[in-house]
Amino acid sequence: MEKIIDKILFGGDYNPEQWPEDVWQEDMRMLKDAGVDIVTLNVFSWAMLQPNEFFYDFRKLDRIMQCVTEAGMKVCMATSTAAHPAWMARRHPDILRVDFDGHKRKFGSRHNSCPSSPTYRKYSKRLAGKLARRYRKYDNIVAWHVSNEYSTDCYCERCERNFRKWLKRRYGSLEALNAAWNTAFWGHKFYSWKEIVAPNNLSEHFGYTRTCFQGISLDYRRFQSDMLLRDYRTEYNAIKKYTPNIPVTTNFMGYHYQIDQKAWAPYLDFAAWDNYPACDSPEWSVAMWHDITRGLKGGRSFWLMEQTPSVSNWNRYCALKRPGEMRELSYQAVAHGADTVMFFQMRRSIGACEKYHGAIIDHVGTENTRVFKECAELGEELKNLKAVTLAARTNSRVAILFDWENWWAISYSAGPTTELNYPEEVKKFYRAFYELHIPVDMIGCEDDLSKYDLVIAPVLYMIKGNYDVKLNDFVKRGGHLVTTFFSGYVNENDLVTLGGYPGKLRDILGIWVEEIDALPAEKENNFTWEGLDYSAKIVCDLLHPETAEVLASYNNDFYAGMPALTVNEYGDGKAYYIATSSDPDFYYNFFERMAVELNIPSLGEAPKDVELTIRCKGSNNVIFALNHSFEHKCFKIWSDATDLLTGEEFRANEEIWIDNMGVRVLKTR
Amino acid sequence: MEKIIDKILFGGDYNPEQWPEDVWQEDMRMLKDAGVDIVTLNVFSWAMLQPNEFFYDFRKLDRIMQCVTEAGMKVCMATSTAAHPAWMARRHPDILRVDFDGHKRKFGSRHNSCPSSPTYRKYSKRLAGKLARRYRKYDNIVAWHVSNEYSTDCYCERCERNFRKWLKRRYGSLEALNAAWNTAFWGHKFYSWKEIVAPNNLSEHFGYTRTCFQGISLDYRRFQSDMLLRDYRTEYNAIKKYTPNIPVTTNFMGYHYQIDQKAWAPYLDFAAWDNYPACDSPEWSVAMWHDITRGLKGGRSFWLMEQTPSVSNWNRYCALKRPGEMRELSYQAVAHGADTVMFFQMRRSIGACEKYHGAIIDHVGTENTRVFKECAELGEELKNLKAVTLAARTNSRVAILFDWENWWAISYSAGPTTELNYPEEVKKFYRAFYELHIPVDMIGCEDDLSKYDLVIAPVLYMIKGNYDVKLNDFVKRGGHLVTTFFSGYVNENDLVTLGGYPGKLRDILGIWVEEIDALPAEKENNFTWEGLDYSAKIVCDLLHPETAEVLASYNNDFYAGMPALTVNEYGDGKAYYIATSSDPDFYYNFFERMAVELNIPSLGEAPKDVELTIRCKGSNNVIFALNHSFEHKCFKIWSDATDLLTGEEFRANEEIWIDNMGVRVLKTR
Amino acid sequence: MEKIIDKILFGGDYNPEQWPEDVWQEDMRMLKDAGVDIVTLNVFSWAMLQPNEFFYDFRKLDRIMQCVTEAGMKVCMATSTAAHPAWMARRHPDILRVDFDGHKRKFGSRHNSCPSSPTYRKYSKRLAGKLARRYRKYDNIVAWHVSNEYSTDCYCERCERNFRKWLKRRYGSLEALNAAWNTAFWGHKFYSWKEIVAPNNLSEHFGYTRTCFQGISLDYRRFQSDMLLRDYRTEYNAIKKYTPNIPVTTNFMGYHYQIDQKAWAPYLDFAAWDNYPACDSPEWSVAMWHDITRGLKGGRSFWLMEQTPSVSNWNRYCALKRPGEMRELSYQAVAHGADTVMFFQMRRSIGACEKYHGAIIDHVGTENTRVFKECAELGEELKNLKAVTLAARTNSRVAILFDWENWWAISYSAGPTTELNYPEEVKKFYRAFYELHIPVDMIGCEDDLSKYDLVIAPVLYMIKGNYDVKLNDFVKRGGHLVTTFFSGYVNENDLVTLGGYPGKLRDILGIWVEEIDALPAEKENNFTWEGLDYSAKIVCDLLHPETAEVLASYNNDFYAGMPALTVNEYGDGKAYYIATSSDPDFYYNFFERMAVELNIPSLGEAPKDVELTIRCKGSNNVIFALNHSFEHKCFKIWSDATDLLTGEEFRANEEIWIDNMGVRVLKTR
User: Fold this and answer.
1) Of B168, C82, C112, C506, which sees the most CB atoms within 10 A?
2) DSSP E strands, C141-213
3) Which percentage of chain A shows pLDDT scores above 70?
4) Residues of chain A found within 8 Å of residue C313, distances taken between Cβ atoms
C-alpha cells in the first residue's frame, strides 16, 4: 500500500449499481473535478453479486471496476456482507437474527445476519474469496473493507449453543463458571452447560443494560464481540489467500458499545472509522473518537472511512454543516492521524432511507452546489499537501485508558447510580487536555505504559488480570497515575475484590474507600482545591487516606471534611485519586498544574476552542490549528513555521490569526 | 333518503342489547323528550346475532327494531362487524390479527380482525346480507353503517401473501418493483415475490413510522387501506343487493392515518365522521376535520355520526364540555356541512371501558341532568330549523390540498427533521382562513381545481402521477398556487425527482432549492415581509430564484439574505413558495393580503374566535356565527339577515351581539 | 414462639452458601458483636438443595444450621422457592412464566415460576416439607419464611385454563359471567368457557393497567393473587405437618399492587414486610406501610423482615442512609408494631445484581465501618429495651380503609383522569393524622368498625358486597365517616350502581353527584373552608346536596358555588364528603378540627416532622418520638415519662429535646 499512496486519499463510498451506466461517466468526470482519487465500492451488493446459492454474477462490478480504474481512481473494495440477500433469508432462515426480546427477525434492514449462522459463514467467506481472486489483478485496489459498521446482537438458540462452547473454553468447568458468576446468589447454580441460556429480556435482563447477573451478561457481550470478530476474520483470511499484500480493515464507529474494538485491532491491518457527529457533539468528542481510533493500532495512522459532506439524514434535526465546517472536520481527522478523507457518499441515492444523506453530487446532479464546491476546494488543497502527514505519529506523554470491558461492566452495574456513564467520564479528562493543547494517546489495557509520564484511568472499575501490577510498575518507576471513584472494585468477572475498595489499587493509591454516596441529578456537593470551589456530582466517595495526602475535601453534607482529592507518593511516582465527578474547570486547572509539574508542554497558546494537534514524521513536525468557533481567533506556537495551505511564514511566539472555522497546517522549522 | 328526511337528524348510537327490555320503553320516552329522531343500532352485536357458525338469532334485534319503530325513530343500521365474536376467534384463529411487533393477537378489544381473513370475509358478508334482507321492510332505515371506525393493521403471513399479489398487480414485474423501491440500496434486490415480507418491527421498521425502505412501507400502507376497503365493499355490495336505495357509509375519524379516506370516498354513498376533539383541540382543528369530511364527496353534506354529549372517557383528563359547548360544537358541524347531529351514546353503559363516556341518559337514569337538558334544548332547536341547511353547499374559492399518500410519505421520511408533521403544517394554512372568515374546501388530488381562485398545497412532498400538470394548468389559466418547503421531491414511489428540488414544480415556482437546514425545536430564524418580522422554524430552505421574484429573505445565519418567500408569475397566474414554517401571524397576514388581491371576500367582520361559515341551497344563504370564546363578542356580516334561532332581524353591517359559546344561524336576505 | 422471644429480634438475611465455610465463623463472631440474634437462612438455595428431580442435598444447610445454632442465633428458615433451579427450567419448561406481552420466559431472574405450574407445585411442596421435617429438631427456628416477596404474573395457557375454572367457581354460569363483565358491550359475549383468554397486551389490554374490559382484568388480578396464595398455602401446609407450632409467614412489600395482602392475611401466622423507602419517600409513606402491615392481622405486631443498613442498590441514585437514619427507621418500625429489626443482609455478596446493596458486614470485611458500628450500637440498644414493646398494641380511634380490589378497579378505570392514584390519595389522609400525632389503623373491608370513632374511606370507588350496610350501621350508631369523590360508583364486578352517584352511598352522604370534571395536571380550582382557601385538583365533582349540609363550595369555573365539601347527619353520626383532591393543609386543618369535635387526643405537641406513636401492652404505654429532620427539635407529651434509651425522666407537658434523626422511647407513668 505504501508504495502507491503518496497523498491523503480523498473520496469515499460510491454506489454506481444504484444508477444507470450512463451516469457513471458523468460521475467520474465530476468526481475527478472534485479531486476524488479513491472510491469505496461494493459495500451493499451481495444480492446483485449472488442471485442464488449456485451462481455469482460479477458482470456489473467488472464494469464498475473498469470504469473507475480507467478514471484513475484507487479502490477500497468492500465485501458486501453487511446485509444478506433476501433470497438467502427466505431459503436459509438460520441467517436471520433473534433480537433482545427474543423475536426471530424477518428479512430487512442491514446488520441482519446471525453471527453464528452457518449460512452466513459459508457464503460470506465464499464471496470475500471470490472477490479477492477476481479483482487481485487490479493494482489500484489499495484496501479491503470487510462488511460495514459491525454492530449486531443475536440471541438465537444456535448462538446460545455457541455461547456454551465459548464458556467451556473460558472456564473449563461448571464449578469455575458458577464461581465466576456467583450463581449461589438467587440459587442460579448450573449443573449442566445446557441449562445456560442467552441473557436477554426473556431471561436475566429487564432492559438492554439492566441485568440480574452481571457475569453472564458481560460474558455474552464478550462472546458476541468475539463471534463477529470470527466472522470478520473468516473473510479476512479468505481475502489474504489471494491478495496477501493488500491491507484489510473494517470501519468502526468511534467507540461502539457492542464491539471491543481494542480486541479486534490486532486483526485489522489498519484502523478505520466513520465520523458522524450530531449537530451538538462537542469538538473534543470528535477529537477523542479520532484518538481512540489512532490508539487501536498503537498510534499508527488510520482511515477516516466515512463522513458526510453536509447532512446526516438520520438525525432528529438534520442541520447542514456550516460553510467551512466539512473542511475543518476533515482536517481535524488528519490532525489526529487520518491518512484519508472519505465520505459517504459520492452521489445521493434516489430511494430508501438514506436518500437525504449528504453526498458530493446532490440530486440536482450538477457541480454547482455549495457542498460540491467545498468538497472540490478541499480536494485541491489535499493534493497540495502531498504526503507530509501520511503515516506520521503523535508522540504523546499523556495516556488515557479507554477499556471496553470496563465500559460494559459499568453499564451493567446495579448501583451506585444510573447517572454514571463511562465514556462521558472519560471525555471529561480528555477535554481538559484538548483545551490545554496537550496531545493525548487513548490506550487500552494491553498497551505499554513506559513511554508515558502521565496515565489517566478514569473510573477503572474493573481490574482485568494483573493490570494493577502494570500500574504499580508504572508508578514505582516514576509515572504519575490519576484515577477516580468507582475504581478497583472488581475483577474481570465482575466479582468484587474483598478487603476494601479500591481493591487491588488500595496500596498504590494509599486510601480506603468506605462508602459511596450517589447524588440525584439535580444535586451536588463541592470541594475546594487551591483556593477555588468545584462541584462534586454523580457520586461522592467517603474515603480514608492511609498513606495518601489529602489535597481537597468536601465542603458539605455529613461527610464534609472527608477527602475529595488525594495523592499518594509511591515508589518514584505519584498516584492521584479523584473521589467524585466534577466540572470542566476542575479538570482543566488540575491538569494544567500537573503539566507544569511534569514539564509536559502545550503545543501553543490558544483559546480553548482553537484546537492544536501535532503530527511527526522523521524530522518533520506539523502542527494543526483548528478554529471550531464562528469567530476569528489568534494563537501562538513555540517555533517558527510555514502554513502549508497558504505558504505564510510565522515566527515562534508570533500571534497567528485564524479564520472562523479555519484551519492552519503549520510545518515547524 | 332525501324523501323522508326533512330536518337535521338528531340522535345517535343506541345499545338496548346491553339493557333489560323494560328499560327500552323508558329510553324511548326520554329520548323523544330530548327530540331524538334517529338511533344508530347494532354497532357491536355480532356475538349476539350469530352464536355459532350455523345459527343466527335476530330475535332481540327484531324487538329492538319494533320498539324504536313504534317510537317513530329513524334508524341508522350498523352491521356489527367492527368486533368479531369470541367463539369465532377460538374456532377460526385466522380471524385474529398479527401486530406490528409480529405478535399473533388473541381474542379481545375491537378492530381485532385480520383484513384478509377468509373467515372474516365470509361471515361479515353473510351478516351484512342477512341484516339487509331481514330489515329491508322497515322504511325508517335511512342509512347503513358498515363496521365502525376502520383503523386496523395486520402483518400476518396471509396478509403478506396478499400484499405480494397486490404488488404484482401494481408493478407487473419484480424489475419494476426493485426499481420503485430502489432495492439496489443496501442490496435488497428481490428475485422472487416470495422473498417480500411485511414491513414491520421484525423486518424493515424500527418504529411505526421509522423504516429502512420507504417504498415497501408506503405500499404496505396503501395495501392495508385497500384491504380494509375491500372488506367494506364486500359488506356494501351484500347490503345493496337487498336495499339498493338506502345509502351506505362508514364512520371516519377526521383524518385518520391508517385509512386513505379520499380513496375510500367513491365507495361511500355519503361521508360520515366521529368528532372527538381533545379538551385542548383548537376550534380550527375541528373545523378542518369537518371540511375534510365534506371534501370527501366533493362538497356534499355529511353526517356527524358521533360526538360526546359531554365527556370522552378515554382522554387523559376527562374534562366536561362546558355549558353551551356541546350545542356550539353541534352547530359547528352543521355549519360545515353536517346534515345530522348524532351522539355516542343514548344511554351510558354500566360496564367495560366506555362506561364513563358521555351519554344523553346518564347512570342516574333521569332527565334531570345538565347534559340531558342541554341535549333536549338542542333537539328542540333543530326541529325548528327544519330543512334549511340540508344538502346545502359551501361555495369556496379557496382550496387546501390534504393528501393521505403525501402524509404517509412525509411520516416515513428519514430527514429533514422529526419536527415535521404534515397535518399540523396543513392546519397552519387552514387556520389563517378560519380566522379570516373565508370558507375553504379541503380537497384531494383527484378534485377539479378549475373552480378555485386559490389553491394551497402545503408540503407537497409527493407529486403523484402528473399532478404537476394539473397544477400547471391551474396556474397558467390564472390560478394562484401556494406551496412550501419540502415540496416536489418525490414521485408516488417516494423516488426523488432528479434535477433539483422542487422537482416537477421547479418550473412553475421558478426556483431551485439547493439545501434544507433543519432547526432544532428550540431554535428559529426569521424573515421580514412587508415590514414585519416572522419566525422561520422547523426547516429553512436555501433556495435560488430562477424566474421567481423574492418577497422576503432570511435575516440570520449563513444563509441570511437568501429567499424565504417567493412568487413566480406563470401563465396568467402566480405560484408562491414559502420556504420555511412560520407562526400564525404570518399566514394570517399573508392570506389577508392575497384575499384582497384576489378579491375573495370574507363572510363578515368578526374576532378571530368567532367563526363564520356559510351554507347555500338554491337561493337560500345561511351564515353561521359561532362564538368559541367564554366572552360575549360582536360581529358584522355584509347583508341583512334573520337569526333562525331567535327570530331577530339584523341589517347589513350592523353590530351583532353573540353570547359566549353562542351560536347564530343567520338567513341572509 | 412467644416462649423463646423476649426482646426485639435483631438480624436478617444471611447467605453463607455464597461464601467459603471459613468465613462463617468470622461472620458469627462479628454478627454477635453487632448484637445479632436472628438470621434468616435459605432464601435462595433451591438449586443447592435439589440438584435434580431425585436427589436432595442438605449437607451444607446442615452445617450452616449447626454453625448458627452453636453461635446461639435464632433462625427464620426460608423455603427457597422464590427462584427455581436452572435444571428445572430446562427439564420442565412448564415452570416458566409467560409475560404480559405473551412471551414465554426462559430461565433467569427470580419470581420466575408460573403460579399454576404442576412442577412448581410438586417440588416447592416437597422442599418445604423436607425442610420442616429435617430441621424440626432445632428449637431455635422461630419462624418459617415461605418464598420471598411474591409478586409475579403469568399469562400461559395453563393459567388461562385455571382462570376458567376459577371463573366457573365464582360465577357458576356463563350467563352470570357475561352479565358481570357486561360483555354485551363491543359484542364480547362468551358462549363457551374456552373462549375466555387471559387479559394481556395480546387481548384486552393496551398497557398493564389499560384494559378494554375492566371485569375480566379485575378477575384476572384476583385469580393471580389467589393462585400465588394457593402456592403459599401449599408450602404452609407442608410445613405445618411437621412443625405445627412454629409460625409461618411470607414477606410483603408495604402495599404491593399484585397481591391482595389483606386476602392473604388469614393464612399468615403473623405479618412481615420489607421496608425499602426510596431516598425521596416521605416519612409518612413509610409510617403508612408499617400501619398497613400491622392492620393485616387486626393490629397484631409484625416483623420487619428486611431493610437495608444503608444503600438500596437498585435505586436510580443509591444515596447512603445518613448517620442515625438507619437507627431512626428501625425504631419507626418498632413504633408502628414491629417485633423485629431485620436487614437484608448480613454480608455483602461479591457478585450479581445486589452486590452493592447494603449489609452489616461490607466487602472490606471488618467491623470498622460506619454502617457496622451503627448497627452494633442499635443491636446493643435493642437488648436493653427488652420485651417492653413485644406484642404491644396501638389502640386507634381512627381507621383508614385501604382495599386492594378498590385499588385495582381504580387503576383499570378509563376515566375520569390518569392523575388519579389510589394509594397517593389514601396517603393524603394518612399524612394529616401523622402530622397531627394521632394514631391510625389501616383497615380492610373485613375489619370491624365498631371500635372506631372515625372511619375514612378515600376514593371508595368500589362497594364490595354490602359494605355500604356496614358503613351505614357505623354511622347510624354515631360514627363519623369521611369519603371522597369517585366513591360508590361500582359493585365488586366494576358494574356501575345505577340511580346516581355515589350509588349505595347516596343515602348516607345525602348528596347526588351529577358530573365529574377532570382537571389537567397543571390546573386547579379552589374552595374556601372556615375562611381559608384550599386548592381543588385532579377532579371536581359537580354535586347536589340532598339531605347534606354544604361546608364549602368551589370558587371558580362554571360550577363555582357548587359544593366541594358536605356533611350529612345520619342516625347518630355524620358522613362527610370531600368532592375534590386538595393539598396537605386542607386535610391537616380539616382533621384537626374533627379531632377536637370527636375529642380524639393527639399523643403530644410536636412539629410535623417529629413523629409520635404509641404502643401499649397491659398497663405499659410507650410513646415513641422520632425526629425525621436534620435539626434538633422539641416536643411535649401529656404524661410523665422515662426515656428507656437514656433513662432521662420528663414531666408531663415538659419541653423535651430530641436530636436530629433522634429517637426517644418514652415509657409513660
Assistant:
1) C82
2) 141-145
3) 100
4) 414-416
Q: What does the buried/exposed string (b/e) look like for A549-581 if buried means 16 or more CB atoms within 10 Å of the residue's CB?
A: ebbbbbeebbbeebbbbbbbebeebbbbbbbbb
Q: Which residues of B touch C205 (CB under 8 A)?
A: 108
Residue A501 touches partner C, C-beta closer than 8 Å: yes
Residue B468 and residue B465: Cα distance in Å, rounded? 8
**Residue B654 designated active-site:** no
Are C214 and B364 inside 8 Å of each other by CB?
no
Inter-chain CB proximity C364 and A501 less than 8 Å = yes
CA distance A408 to chain C (A): 14
Say what the pLDDT of residue A1 is: 41
Q: Cis omega (within 30 of 0) on the bond before A282?
A: no
pLDDT at A473: 98
- CATH (one of 3.40.50.880, 3.40.50.2000, 3.90.76.10, 3.40.190.10) for B398-598: 3.40.50.880
pTM above 0.90, yes or no: yes
**C-alpha cell at position B273:** 365522521
Q: A252, A277 in Cβ contact below 8 A?
A: no
Among A17, A204, A283, A306, the one annotated catalytic: A306
**Any idea how long chain A is?**
669
Task: Measure the CA–CA gap between C104 and C111, rounded to whole angstroms.
Answer: 14
Element (H, E) at C135: helix C118-135
Looking at residue C152, its pLDDT comes to 86
H/E segment holding residue B348: none
Q: How confident is the model at residue A4 (pLDDT cuts 50, 70, 90)?
A: confident
CATH 3.10.150.10 fits C604-668, yes or no: no
Cell of A433: 487536555
Q: Which residues of C touch A199 (CB under 8 A)?
A: 108
pLDDT at B2: 43
Helix (H, G, I), strand (E, B) or coil at C242: coil
pLDDT tens for each residue of C494-552: 999 999 999 999 999 999 999 999 999 999 999 999 999 999 999 999 999 999 999 99
| pLDDT value, residue A279 | 83
Quote the percentage of chain B above a pLDDT of 70.
100
Cα B456 from Cα B436, distance rounded (Å): 15
Contacts of B371 in chain C (CB under 8 A): 515
Distance of CA C513 to the CA centre of its chain: 32
pLDDT at residue C279, rounded to an integer = 83
CA B583 – CA B299 distance, rounded (Å): 29
Query: Closest approach of chain B CAs to the CA of C568, in angstroms?
Result: 21
The stretch C134-157 carries a mean pLDDT of 97
Which residues have CB under 8 Å from A153's CB, separation 6+?
Answer: A97, A99, A100, A224, A258
**Residue A380, SS3?**
helix
CATH number 3.20.20.80 is the correct assignment for the domain at C9-155+224-385: yes
Q: Which residues are CB-neighbours of B608 under 8 A, at least 6 positions away?
A: B435
Q: What is the mean pLDDT of residues C42-63?
A: 98
Residue ranges of domains in chain A: 9-155+224-385, 159-219, 398-598, 604-668
Interface of B with C in 273-292 (CB under 8 A): 279
Name residue A612's amino acid.
Answer: L
Do the chains contact at C48 and A415, CB–CB below 8 Å? no
What crossing angle do the helices spanning C283-296 and C325-336 adopt, rounded to 10°?
30
State whether residue A215 sits within 8 Å of chain C by CB: yes
Contact B499 A310 (CB under 8 A): no
Cα C121 from Cα B584, distance rounded (Å): 67
Catalytically annotated residue among B204, B283, B306, B381: B306
C202 to chain B: which residues are within 8 Å by CB?
103-106, 108
SS3 (DSSP) at A41: strand
Mean pLDDT for the stretch of residues B17-26: 97
